[in-house]
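Minutes, project check-in
Item: structure for the 302-residue chain
Input as provided by the requester:
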Amino acid sequence: MSGVLGWLWYEGTLPAWGLIVGNAFLFGVLHELEHDLIHFIYFKNNKIVHNIMLLTVWLVRPLTLNPWFRRVLHFHHHKFSGTLHDVEERGVTNGEKWSLKRLLFTPDLVIGNILRVFGLFRDIKREVDKGNLKFQTAKKLKLSGVFGLIPFTILSHVILYVFFTNILLNFLHEAYGFTWVFSDSIQYMLEWLNPVIYIILLPNLLRQFCLHFITSNLHYFGDVEQGNVIEQTQVLNVWWTFPFQLFCFFFGWTHAIHHFVVNETFYLRHIARKKAHEIMRQHGVRFNDLGTFRRANRYHGA
């Protein structure tokens, strides 16, 4: 379906915004499929099919981490959700105070993580020194976070950096006579990469922004009691999040369910969500705790 939308855009039948919106939705579904694959829900006993599926969903979503490295971070996330060494969630801005900086780097796994990596590694070392984290586990988390970006994640982000910088420079040149613009060779490269940028990268940028915005605010951070699943997440389905939910397959509606029932497919979570939400309310799971935006995702506090 994504290829069909790409072809329609390439032929001039579908506008660019329609392509970006359509593929962002489809790639949001693929993110949920990848998430289930990371938990070995599909083809666990057929490694060839399983790994081909993982590779495929990664190649059409190249702004994300290598899923084999992400598996390390994600399993650790389930075990230590909301702690200082929950590398997966901290990598998507969870726990940071809301600011223009956090907003700009919400979808960015390269520059955004470069800006936070020293603080993250410092916290990890402190947790090792306190005995809260094994040294070998810390080393594995660091290596997985770094090598998970190579090569496609970094390359895809660099292409987008050049693409948006080129748009800005051309605007400044046309509007204000700004003299510095990219060379003809870079302009040619961008033109040659146009199908990749519009069919894959821009839809994934939209999808990734929406996913990171939702996930980083439905997960709690910093003062979560270790192992207390009630404090790890909330259900975030308030009406104004609908545009964000649309491009991450309504992640805010169902992800809290996943923390309680891990090995359940994403579509079953949606089928059972109404009943699951009733039970979760009865046991104190929060719904639409919007104070988390003010509290930098802390569970406790006014």
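Outcome recorded: The two ends are 46 Å apart (CA to CA).
No further action items on this chain.
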